[in-house]
Write a structure and sequence with these properties.
With 233 residues, the protein is α/β, with parallel strands linked by helices. It has one domain: Rossmann fold. The chain has eight helices and seven strands, in the order H-H-E-H-E-H-E-H-E-H-E-H-E-H-E. Strands 3-2-1-4-5-7-6 form a seven-stranded mixed β-sheet, with helices on both faces. Helix 1 runs parallel beside helix 7. The longest helix is centred in the last third of the chain and has 18 residues. The chain is globular, with a radius of gyration of 17 Å. It binds S-adenosylmethionine. The site of S-adenosylmethionine has 19 residues, from helix 5 and helix 8. S-adenosylmethionine binds next to helix 5 and helix 8.
Length: 233
């Protein structure tokens, strides 16, 4: 399926009309839901892994088959890099990268978990995070699906507070616009001091399997970053 990936189709033509209300509502409430046992166990394993390092964590959320996790491991060689995905099939491909002649870098650890729960556990445990990658999250492009997008969900305030540097990439311009808009609302409401940027970009070396596939299919690619003052020191 290289080079023939369909562009995101949606009945939305701009930022969802309900998004501002959703973000404001969730900024004013605490996110609670029961956490699945397997995610709690995955979190404990990841916690044991990061404890071996004396450096803040890099998180690759929704890492899929783990190519971006390996890129991040090279970029942050001293930091533990945790790739998280709910798909066992994709993660087994990530682990098998180790078997293709090259061992997994020592600073990489993959865990199978539901992101909403995992982020909540990370936040409650106050992990020290250096960089958080969220590459090509599922777009949930129908208007009726806005609440499934991470920025339209009750987890969004937790996501914003997790790391001093968050980078989201997508092949859907509206998702990028919404993500930036939701970050700006959080910034204003929570009196944060973040630099929020949105750009269309062309990667010279695709960072992930989906980035490669979307680029080869001629899609526009967008990057939204939120960097708090803390990380610029
Ligand atoms: C479109 S793929 C992108 C994968 C990878 N980041 C890339 O760029 O190649 C989205 C990934 O997010 C994972 N995912 C989506 N929602 C998730 C959730 N709530 N918890 C854990 N993983 C999730 C999916 O299993 C899938 O691997």
């Amino acid at each position: 399926m290289i080079g023939n990936s369909k562009k995101v189709e949606s009945n939305q033509t701009g930022i969802h009309k309900d998004l501002e209300g959703l973000v404001l509502r969730y900024l004013n409430s605490e996110f609670r839901r029961p956490i699945a046992d397997h995610t709690r166990k995955a979190f404990e394993e990841a916690s044991a892994f990061i404890a071996k390092f004396d450096a803040p964590v890099v998180l690759d959320s929704g890492c899929g088959t783990g190519l971006s996790t390996l890129h991040l491991a090279k970029r942050f060689p001293e930091n533990p890099v945790i790739g998280v995905d709910k798909s066992e099939v994709r993660l087994s491909k990530a682990d098998s990268r180790a078997e293709n002649g090259e061992p997994l870098p020592k600073n990489v650890f993959f865990v199978r978990a539901e992101l909403l729960d995992f982020w909540k556990l990370v936040s409650d445990a106050k992990w020290n995070i250096r960089f958080h990658a969220l590459y090509y999250p599922n777009p949930w492009p129908k208007q009726s699906e806005v609440r499934y997008r991470f920025h339209g969900s009750p987890i969004f305030p937790t996501l914003v507070s997790l790391s001093p540097e968050l980078e989201m990439r997508t092949n859907w311009k509206i998702y990028a616009d919404e993500f930036r808009f939701a970050l700006e609302i959080a910034q204003k409401h929570l009196h944060l001091n973040m630099e929020i940027t949105e750009e269309k970009f062309v990667p010279s070396d695709p960072i992930s399997a989906f980035e490669k596939k979307f680029q080869e299919s001629g899609h526009g690619l967008y990057k939204v970053s939120a960097t708090s003052q803390r990380s610029s020191h």
